[in-house]
Amino acid sequence: MKRRKFLGLLGGAALTWADLASAQTDLPPKRIGLIANSLLPPVQRFRERLQKLGYIEGKNIAIEFRFGEGQGDRFPEFAAELVSMPVDALVAWGNPAAFAAKRATTTIPILIVAGDVVSTGLISNLARPEANLTGFVALNIELENKRLELLKEAIPHLSRVVVLANSANPLNRVNLGTARQAAEKLAVKIEVVEVSNAADIEGALAQIKELRPDAALLASDTLLLSKRKEIASFMAEQRIPAIYPFKEYANVGGLFIYGANISVLFERVADYLDKLLKGEKVSNLPVQQATAFELIVNSKTASALGLTVPPSILFRADEVIE
Questions:
Q1: Which segment of 40-49, 118-127, 277-286 scores lowest on mean pLDDT?
Q2: Domains of the chain, with CATH numbers?
């Protein structure tokens, strides 16, 4: 009798554990809101990394994508919509999207990939983030100096550089100030052409055509990145050497690219998200700055422009596209 009673209890326990396992499987998926300008390669790397961490879209995780497609003024609308669902966490790419997310909630964890977050006022304490926002900084104010120096090294007679920027990006003011200081040291004149949405791109490129600069510098901005094909094609047609901030410009014929690998940062965002979903606090996840930057040189584009890239630049390049 005792043996039967023991087996019966054991069977009941096994049934209970099975029910618990089934209940865990039937839990609703974690819902993540992602705000960006468009579905670019780094976002795909984010999804792939989540899959490697055991998250399957449609099963234990659901990602709600909201893309501005060149209309950054929609980011606040997107953020409010995602918060009202609600989502378990928000991911924002770029300073405009990050600010929209920050203003929409003080409780839902926010992970960002953005530019200089301290100078723009997005975050004040990198080591121990306040409130509900942390993530990764893709660039710092020194990068504009480096990009201008690279242009001067490649084009010794450089005297006029046009900067194509997004006036709606809070990072714009900081970067332009840095670029002007660097230009003064290099005896180079800066002329700024600004857009505020995708509809402005065509007019901005026409303005650059009229200016006929010696070279161009593209601001670190996802709106411009979403129009990379049109911009790179224009620079090639007008024979304007240009330097770009994101690796994705290399695939459309960008001459020089110097900046952090955003896809790698998005993989790290996925790692942070995994920790948050497992109960880690935002305050225990410090904001991390990119420390490795890539220099990519497109020799094919240089040849088409009639530009001989100095060996000193080729030697330092992480990648040379033939």
A1: 118-127
A2: 25-139+262-289 (3.40.50.2300), 142-260+293-321 (3.40.50.2300)
